[in-house]
Amino acid sequence: MHEMGLCEAIVDAVLQRAEGRRVRSVRVRVAGHPVVREVVDQGFAMAAAGTVAEGAELELVVEPPGVVCRACAEWSPVTSARALVACPRCGSLDVASAEDERLVVEEIAFSAETAAQPAAETAGGRR
Ligand SMILES: [Zn+2]
Hints:
The protein has 127 residues and is an alpha+beta fold. Helix content is 23%, strand content 28%.
């Protein structure tokens, strides 16, 4: 399943940067492939289970399809039919649709508490 591979790639990238720190939230930018948000949310939760990223909030930014300009090398989102034939930035007609998938982990927020600290909430419920 495409989304599951995507989620594993996200979790991998997050864990590499987390270096053992507890992850609170992650912002990921995905381009070049339509993804189903709910499926990615679920897949992320599954892939993150048992890691420091377990329970982290996933903010998914899905970019629209884009074109790459051969004149200025700029990537532009296709927001109108015109963008498919001319670069919105420099006006060059030498544009190609950007089909390659991109996955960028833009931001990782870490929890202030470390994983080693005991969770106070687990004691709740009994008075
Ligand atoms: Zn251009």
